[in-house]
Amino acid sequence: MNANGRPRFSILDLAPVREGGSIGDALHSSLDLARHAEQWGFTRFWLAEHHNMQGIASAATSVLIGYVAGGTSTIRVGSGGVMLPNHSALVIAEQFGTLATLYPDRIDLGVGRAPGSDELASRALRYNATEEDFPRQVAELLAYLAPAGPGQRLVAFPGAGTNVPVWLLGSSTYSAQLAASMGLPFAFASHFAPALLLEAIDQYRSRFTPSRYLQEPYVAAGVPVIAAESDAEAERLSTSALQRALKLIRRQPLFTPPPVESMDGLWTDAERFLVTSRLRVAAIGGPETVRRKLSFLVEETGADELIFTSDLYEHRDRLRSFELISEAMKDLCAMRSGLGSA
């Protein structure tokens, strides 16, 4: 939260490609969204690494971060996240050290342990991670981003001394415990894996150890939101996200489809359960419904920040969804500020 105890709000973007659209359209739309988000008061704009997923155009994450940061002025831009076991820690330090040099005090580096891909792509990426190896990789990355010591022979250049803020991302209690032990900010992937949200936050806060990176625990939660002028319109628009989640389960290309009037006949009962269980913390509705759901989520989690996803077929609908989200969060912050001064 900010200094006034109000939750911050941000965006997680996957540069979604819609059916009939192009990768170029998706990348340009991501920049356009970031520019609007900057005006609407969002804190940060994160992009996520995925591979071999047709319909998601954010694979070259650091390149896309540079594109978005270069086209905006004040909003923080970063990774939500880079899948560290896919890479050399030195290379990531150099990439994000370069970004931080070009865009000072605006770059975040969120890292995760999953491959961000399927088994075939994992092999192609030389993905190799164990629970023992990941903490070493994170420590190595932090060391490369810190000022170089006397006589240090291997230096991230650029990178050394930039102290790019590093976040740990995860969808389990493992990541929460590691973030707590290392004294790093933690972002939980409740936008697609909400089951352990409250348990992970509790473990993170209860086990947090202050560090030179962070003195107090700081937790962000991912939230899927579809906001529109009415509940009925939001429910209709949300069928694009539901169909996309269904494609993920079926291992089909993830191009964002146009909305449909009903999901009946498009999924089995088992598929419906799997899709809807991933959306337990989702806020879908008109302005008042979204405001009420987000207020409940902030009270339930005590999250310092909410990071929103809102993948819709039409770019204009996506922009409007995020605009309504920003209005809801500003109202929520004003209400909390009023209660705090009462």
Describe this structure as you would to a colleague.
With 342 residues, the protein is an alpha/beta fold. The protein has one domain: Luciferase-like domain (TIM Barrel, Alpha-Beta Barrel). The protein has eleven helices and nine strands. The protein has an eight-stranded parallel β-barrel with strand order 1-2-3-4-5-6-7-9, surrounded by eight helices. Helix 8 (231-249) crosses helix 9 (269-277). The longest helix has 27 residues, at 315-341. 49% of the residues are buried.
Task: Provide the gyration radius in Å.
Answer: 19 Å
Principal-axis shape: globular
Biggest sheet: strands, sense, closure? 8 strands, parallel, barrel
Specify the helix fraction band.
Answer: 40-55%
CATH superfamily: Luciferase-like domain
The tally of beta strands, per DSSP, is: 9
Q: Work out the count of structural domains.
A: 1
* Weakly predicted, low-confidence segments: none
Count of alpha/pi helices: 11
The CATH topology label is: TIM Barrel
N-to-C CA distance:
19 Å
Which class best fits the helix and strand makeup?
A: alpha/beta
Q: Given this structure, which CATH class is correct?
A: Alpha Beta
Q: How much strand? A: 5-15%
Order of helices and strands: EHEHEHEHHEHEHEHHEHEH
Please name the CATH architecture: Alpha-Beta Barrel
User: pLDDT average, as an integer?
Assistant: 93
Strand order of the largest sheet: 1-2-3-4-5-6-7-9
Question: What are the defining features of this structure?
Answer:
TIM Barrel, 11 helices, alpha/beta, 14% strand, eight-stranded parallel beta barrel, globular, 342 residues
